[in-house]
Amino acid sequence: MDICAIACPSCQCLEVKEHTVYETLNYGQRTIYCCSTCCRYFSSTSNTFLSDIRKPLSVIVQVLKSRTEGLGLNAACRVFNLAKNTILNWERRFTVIKQTLLLYALLHQYLQLIIEGDEVYTKVEKNASPDESLGWTVVLMDRNSRFLWELKCGKKDRKLFEKALEILEKLVNQTQDLSLITDGERRYGNILFDTCHELIRNGKPGRPRKTLKKGIKVRVKNKGSQAHKRGPKRPKYQAPCPEHPDTVQDIEDKDIHANHCEAFNSSLRRRNSTFRRKTNTYAKSEKGLQRVLDVYWVVHNFIRSHFTTKQVPAVDIGILDKALSWKELLMLPISAIV
């Protein structure tokens, strides 16, 4: 499946042929295609990010790169002499691109994945206590390739973790060996156990035992002091939920950590203005915070080479053969534009 293949926006047919060529103000020549199935004529930018956009591609790329390198929204408007609604419209379109790329990534089969889970916090709307803030962001990252499977923000409750772990539920069916490792937060394993468990039927009397599916492992590194807590102390490294007896137990204690997620959180605070302490309110709204996180997700996974691996995460994990250029990314056919 070629993600960059040109398809008819009406019937999604790939059998299209060139019809005519026309001149544009900033993009040179563009092609009009004709669908061999429904006979519809459409431009090469139909149902893409660049649909109905007249600004030069170089300006769009500079603005989006600056936004993912720490430049705030108002500062970007001043630097590039653009209206705020223009930049907001471009970032909203990236939400649809993220959905398309995520669906494409979930179609692949994986032999083994080690996912690290962690949270990063910022303030939203007003200076509220951390328990009431909507700025908690769940990070699910593949350890080897640094591919981000999820960046989901909201209030730190069960609903936020359930939404984030919907991605892992789909990955379980595409992966023979998946390990989820977190620092201190047991809800990752408990919610995954609720959605991805199976019954062990061994012929013995009594209710069958529930375990995680075969090949799925969850480990928690309990952090912090428990001297002030009552009851028996929890072990430093543990599996918070029962696992399948046929699952290979090959995780050593020294490998149970979320250090790569912690490093990413530090990078996110440098490169995303909504996570920096310049004002009492770092992000204006939960919807706005999720918008900039979606832009960061696309650039991090499919455009930018990681500092450590020296590769684009989507290429390292095997989703793409080569990194997408900005032009290829903005010309991706998508189902709809917001």
Topology:
Elements: E1 16-23, E2 29-35, E3 41-43, H1 57-67, H2 73-80, H3 84-106, E4 110-120, E5 136-142, E6 148-154, H4 158-172, E7 175-183, H5 187-195, E8 197-200, E9 209-212, E10 216-221, E11 237-238, H6 259-271, H7 286-302, H8 313-316, H9 326-330
Parallel strand pairs: 4-7, 7-10
Antiparallel strand pairs: 1-2, 2-3, 4-5, 5-6, 8-9, 10-11
What can you see in these coordinates?
The chain has 338 residues and is an alpha+beta fold. It folds into 3 domains: 1-46, no CATH class; 52-108 and 285-338; 110-276, no CATH class. The protein is 31% helix and 20% strand. It is built from 9 helices and 11 strands. It has helices at residues 57-67, 73-80, 84-106, 158-172, 187-195, 259-271, 286-302, 313-316, 326-330; strands at residues 16-23, 29-35, 41-43, 110-120, 136-142, 148-154, 175-183, 197-200, 209-212, 216-221, 237-238. The protein has a 6-stranded mixed β-sheet, sandwiched between helices. Helix 4 crosses helix 5 (187-195). The longest helix is centred in the N-terminal third of the chain and has 23 residues, at 84-106.
List the defining traits of the structure above.
11 strands; 338 residues; 3 domains; alpha+beta; three-stranded antiparallel sheet
Strand order of the largest sheet: 6-5-4-7-10-11
What is the residue-mean pLDDT, rounded to a whole number?
87
Tell me the span between the first and last alpha carbons.
Answer: 25 Å
**Would you tell me the structural class of the helices and strands?**
alpha+beta
